[in-house]
Design a protein that fits this description.
elongated, alpha/beta, five-stranded mixed barrel, 262 residues
Length: 262
């Protein structure tokens, strides 16, 4: 190493270099993580688009009361027939749409086999945030045939999924199963259509978000930050190596004209 650069081997500059490398490696790792999330979302969106094009299949072909459905089958359409059990109906609180507070209405559909499936019948606007009792439209009475999008449980354990005063924060068929007098299929359905239908009825669930999301741009930003850290270290090292150039630049800069005193 030339003598003029030996200052880089001092404790101060080695410590600064180590700190910069740690920052750069952290930014690299965070960028890779974001790109990995982007790839996962891309693959999930491709699977969802394919599933949405598949014709409806019987409920029993994709769901059962013992184990969760395959994650790759989410957003496939299934058909089921049965009777809605309004006595064990629940609302899912804090379901805001376009800034408007509301709740989702979840009603068990008891099939002829005696096993029920939870059906998210849709969204109802509320005055507050959903902590109060909500007057929701009744479902059709008698035998009903529904077509719904297969969904996996959105929660597992804890207060969020344990029914309290007819309300939950997240849907867990396993947690709700402990509060109903029949077995439940694992997972639930987002209602797409039902026969017969009634009015008024909740607004159907929103379609899945198939956007790419921000992960790709977050990954680019993290890698840029890592390169920026290395670039700053290089700039400071250059400035330390050429101190006379800074003095020369200042000396050669034009000076304002002197003003004479009267």
């Amino acid at each position: 190493m030339p003598a003029s650069y030996r200052f880089l081997l001092t404790r101060r500059w080695l410590g600064l270099l180590l700190a910069v490398l740690v920052v750069a490696l952290a930014c690299y790792a965070l960028g890779r993580w974001q790109f990995h999330r982007y790839d996962e979302r891309h693959d999930r969106n491709a699977t969802t688009r394919t599933n949405q094009k598949i014709p409806p299949v019987p409920l029993d072909s994709l769901m059962n009361p013992g184990t969760a459905a395959n994650a790759g089958d989410q957003w496939r359409r299934v058909e089921a027939s049965g009777r809605y059990d309004v006595d064990h109906q629940l609302t899912v609180s804090y379901r805001t749409r376009q800034g408007t507070p509301g709740v989702d209405v979840v009603t068990p559909l008891v099939t002829d086999s005696g096993v029920a499936v939870l059906v998210d019948r849709g969204w109802v606007q509320t005055i507050g945030n959903g902590n109060q009792m909500v007057d929701v439209p009744d479902p059709p009475t008698g035998m009903v045939t529904v077509t719904g999008w297969l969904r996996l449980d959105t929660g597992d354990t804890g207060n969020r999924v344990t029914p309290s005063q007819g309300s939950v924060r997240s849907i867990s068929s396993r947690a709700i199963a402990a509060t109903v007098p029949y077995d439940l299929y694992v997972g639930f359905l987002d209602l797409a259509d039902e026969t017969p239908s009634v009015q008024p009825s909740p607004e159907l669930a929103d379609p899945p978000d198939l956007s790419a999301g921000p992960s790709f741009f977050y990954g680019v930003q993290w890698w840029f930050f890592g390169l920026l850290a290395i670039g700053f270290w290089g700039y400071f090292a250059y400035a330390e190596r050429h101190p006379t150039r800074r003095v020369t630049d200042r000396a050669s800069a034009p000076r304002p004209p002197a003003t004479s005193r009267q």
